[in-house]
Design brief:
The complex is a heterotrimer of chains A (384), B (218) and C (224). Chain A is an alpha+beta fold and 384 residues long. Chain A has 16 helices and 8 strands. Chain A has 2 domains: 54 residues, no CATH class; 321 residues, Cytochrome-c3 Hydrogenase, chain B, CATH 1.10.645. Helices cover 48% and strands 12% of the residues of chain A. In chain A, helix 5 packs antiparallel against helix 6, helix 5 runs antiparallel to helix 12 and helix 5 packs antiparallel against helix 15. Chain A is globular. In chain B, helix 5 crosses helix 6. Chain C folds into 2 domains: 143 residues, Beta Polymerase, domain 2, CATH 3.30.460; 31 residues, no CATH class. About 2% of the residues of chain C have low confidence. Chain C contains 4 helices and 10 strands. The chains are: A alpha+beta (384), B alpha+beta (218), C alpha+beta (224). Chains in contact: A-B, A-C, B-C. The interface between A and C is large, with 49 and 39 residues.
Chain lengths: 384, 218, 224
């Protein structure tokens, strides 16, 4: 184990390099800007960060062990609690992995409904993230409250469809649990129609704001090569200019039928990561319009899918989708019993944190706060 | 011009501030204890047990203590003890019933899996949310008497689902009766064989055609 | 993308003396994997990353799998001809053998540049107690850094060459490796009795305790 005590070997090494008085500060775990119980052990030279070690696990509940102890169906509600902002996409990723493992097909209508819900989740997540990021910048309250106002409308939709605002537990292997009624679809259509106006207003508030630009541009840069090597996915990867969106790459579900673009950044800084998310929301609105217009009739569940006594035959599968935070994947090994032998979550926000130190080196503590904010983490998923 | 972005943003906040006085889209909160939001029909909180008859809740529980929900519950918050004897249910059919049916709501995560796996439509999701107590142990462990609620209540909170369930149960009952009738007729039509002495009493209805539990998953 | 067999053949041609086997996956997903020996693991990973045909530049997912040792009962039938010329006797011999357990690390590799994948790479330790060292692939893919720490923390695989191998999710003073199948969890995490504990106790009395790690399945069989 590495010695992290003040004056340890690593501190002495940096000390020799910088010839300054170094200070080791523990930011968190109870820090409002760390998005939960997350701790960063930062070594400072003046106000510059010369070393940063993220420390987590405060919310660790061994989700994967729980998954090995319950049936395949029983893990579905637990996936809601990974990234509790995006339960619909977590559900979908898990359902995709199990469907791959068992060779289940999904009816067309269910695929469309999944796309609609995933894109609503993306709107919700990115809106919230923009709000949180502004909160981290010191812009307390206003943008976050506007974001939450819109988020609440999406959560109301989720609640009236699935019964719960955040813990939806909606997807099933081979389809979805309930068929969205016509009035629900009409409400979704109203929300989607109005979302562009909200985005325009939100952007008028933030995108061109000189203070936001001064705080975020050129901060927390990451290079494309490092991002790919470090397994960074989602908007953080695309902000570096790498065109990698699983909706295009894998073309899972019915995404190939929709016409949308993948926004790319050029600098990989905090501002790019913010802009990518705003642009993605605009594309999501487009996908939602197409999906709501083209929603076919038919069954919502594959009649061959079993709710109870589900036992896929021995084998393994890795299924992944493009979640709002990046690639969320599930790796399952079945031994033919009702419980998976191995149940693994590939958590995007955990892996996106790998190069947090690289992004923060040389910046100030206040910048580290917004860099962490721009990575977009949810501790329920990081710690699992 | 430097600062134009800031001015533009200020215009947005001003619009929202003034709008909150007359535009309901910009003033979205309700003053909770006095005003309550209308819950959507699908809203779920904790499970309850459906009884057919409000005057005799314990005698008319739909639950037959098959323990499927207990087994499937992901956080294992349900505890059931089967009865040794059988009692007639609301339809007069002899059934095993739960002597103990407890749900630990401090553990329950409102996932609705018990509702989905129940083959008898006996457990449904409640919508009560003002359930704060000062005792975090026993007061959160709900027993069978606290959990039982009449079917009319179910109709009140989930009208669509309840109507579906009732229609399905009625259809099942009818089908069962017809099957019983057909079986009885077939039996009557048969020439009396060397006395299968205790001839099946007509009261003993054949097993419900309704979702007969296909045995536990394991 | 090349099939796992093609990749295996090229790896064997490039690294003479290495052992690569294709592990067949029986599920409809048909994601077959490559089991490579630990001694050549890192060189092969580097080859897979830099190879112009594969260009597996992203290691998306790293995880461990625990395969505890398992008792296999084998029945062998031998036919002994009767010297008197009667019907031959069939003698059944039952032999028990302990199939050794191992810890396995699975890497899911994708190519962002060429948009293909996954190529699944597996490495196995010698046993579950003392020979648990595998080469770290963090020098090849940076994304392995935290994930290998997680595998070290939860499974107890030691990664040789990892820059910063310490516990990541459990606290530093924690002793065991909770994702192992034979991990025994403490009776109660809470210091005070809760109704939950009572319910569990009753439930446990009610259900016979599941035979926890005894019925371990075999690791996927390797075919050459």
């Amino acid at each position: 184990m590495q010695d992290l005590s003040p004056g340890g070997a690593h501190v002495r090494a940096v000390h020799d390099e910088f010839h300054g008085d170094l200070l080791e500060v523990s930011m968190g775990p109870h820090h409002p800007s760390t998005h939960g119980v997350f701790r960063m052990v930062v070594t400072l030279d003046g106000e510059r960060i010369v070393k940063l070690k993220p420390v987590f696990g405060y919310l660790h509940r061994n989700h994967e062990k729980l998954g090995e102890g319950t049936s395949y169906l029983g893990s579905m509600p637990y996936t809601d609690r990974l990234d509790y902002l995006c339960s619909m996409t977590n559900n979908w990723a898990y359902a995709v992995a199990v469907e791959k493992l068992a060779g289940l097909t999904v009816p067309e209508r269910a695929e469309y409904v999944r796309v609609i819900l995933a894109e609503l989740t993306r709107l919700l997540n990115h809106t919230c993230l923009a709000g949180f990021l502004m909160q981290d910048c010191g812009c307390s309250g206003t943008p976050l409250m506007y974001a939450f106002r819109e988020r609440e409308k999406i959560l109301d939709l989720f609640e009236s469809l699935s019964g719960s605002r955040m813990m939806c537990n909606y997807q099933r292997f081979g389809g979805c649990r309930v068929d969205p009624p016509a009035d629900w679809l009409a409400r979704a259509q109203t929300l989607v129609d109005g979302y562009t106006a909200f985005l325009d207003e939100f952007e008028a508030l933030l995108t061109g704001n000189e203070i936001v630009m001064a705080r975020t541009q050129g901060v927390g840069c990451m290079s494309a090569a490092l991002a790919v090597s470090a397994g960074v996915t989602g908007p953080a990867l695309r902000a570096t200019g790498v065109a990698h969106d699983l909706r295009k790459v894998d073309g899972y579900g019915v995404y190939p039928r929709f016409n949308f673009r993948v926004p790319l950044g050029a600098h990989g800084d905090v501002y790019d990561r913010y802009m990518i998310r705003v642009l993605e929301m605009r594309e999501s609105v487009g996908i939602l319009q197409q999906a709501l217009a083209g929603l076919p009739g038919g069954p919502i569940m594959n009649p061959a899918a079993k709710l109870r006594g589900f036992r896929p035959k021995a084998g393994e599968a890795y299924g992944r989708i493009e979640g709002p935070k990046g690639e969320i994947g599930f790796y399952l090994i079945s031994d033919g019993s009702p419980n998976p032998w191995r149940y693994r979550v590939r958590p995007p926000s955990f892996i996106n944190l790998t190069i947090l130190e690289d992004m923060c080196l040389g910046h100030t503590v206040a910048d580290a706060v917004i860099i962490l904010g721009s990575v977009d983490i949810v501790l329920g998923e990081v710690d699992r | 011009m430097l600062g134009s972005g800031i001015l533009q943003g200020l215009a947005v906040t001003a619009k929202n501030f003034l709008g909150s006085y007359h535009d309901p889209a910009r003033y979205t909160t309700v003053e909770y204890p006095e005003v309550k939001q209308q819950l959507p029909e699908a809203f779920r909180n904790f499970p309850f047990l459906v009884t057919e008859n409000a005057t005799d809740p314990m005698g008319t529980l739909r639950c037959v203590a098959c323990q499927i929900c207990e087994k499937e519950c992901p956080p294992q918050c349900i505890f059931i003890e089967k009865s040794k004897d059988k009692k007639p249910d609301a339809n007069g059919k002899l059934q095993i019933y739960p002597v103990v049916f407890a749900i630990d709501t401090s553990v329950c995560m409102s996932c609705q899996i018990c509702v989905e796996v129940c083959p008898f439509d006996a457990i449904k999701m409640d919508q009560v949310y003002e359930i704060a107590t000062t005792d975090r142990f026993d007061a959160l462990l709900l027993n069978r008497e606290q959990l039982a609620k009449p079917n009319e209540y179910f109709h009140q909170i989930h009208p669509t689902e309840a109507a579906e369930v009732d229609a399905r149960l009625a259809a099942d009952r009818k089908a069962a009766e017809e099957k019983a009738k057909a079986a009885a007729a077939a039996k009557a039509a048969l020439p009396a064989k060397p006395a299968p002495a205790p001839v099946a009493k007509p009261a003993v209805v054949p097993p419900p055609t309704a979702p007969q539990s296909p045995g536990p998953a394991a | 993308m090349e099939t796992p067999e093609q990749i295996r053949d090229r790896l064997l041609a490039r690294f003479p003396g290495a052992q690569v086997t294709v592990v067949v996956n029986g599920s409809p997903s048909a994601q077959h994997s490559l089991l490579v020996d630990a001694a050549h693991g890192r060189e092969m990973a580097g080859f897979l990353r830099d190879d112009p045909v594969l260009k597996l530049d992203q290691c998306s997912n790293v995880t461990g799998v625990d395969w505890p040792e398992k008792e296999v009962v084998e029945t062998r039938k031998t036919t002994v001809p009767d010297p008197a010329g009667g019907t031959p006797k069939i003698i059944e011999e039952k032999s028990k053998r302990i199939e050794p357990g191992c810890l396995e690390v699975v890497y899911h590799l994708f190519s962002v540049a060429l948009r293909h994948g996954p190529v699944v790479l597996r490495m196995r330790t010698g046993n579950r107690t003392d020979a648990v060292t595998l080469p770290s692939l963090t020098p090849v893919w940076r994304s392995c850094e935290f994930q290998e720490r997680e595998v070290f923390d939860l499974f107890g695989v030691k990664f040789d060459g990892h820059p910063d191998l310490r516990r990541i999710l459990m606290w530093d003073a924690f002793k065991d490796h909770p994702m192992r199948k034979d991990y025994v969890e403490p009776d109660d995490y809470e210091w005070e009795p809760t109704p939950h504990g009572d319910v569990l106790a009753k439930a446990k009395k009610h259900f016979p305790a599941p035979a926890a790690p005894a019925a371990a399945p075999t690791p996927p069989t390797a075919t050459a």
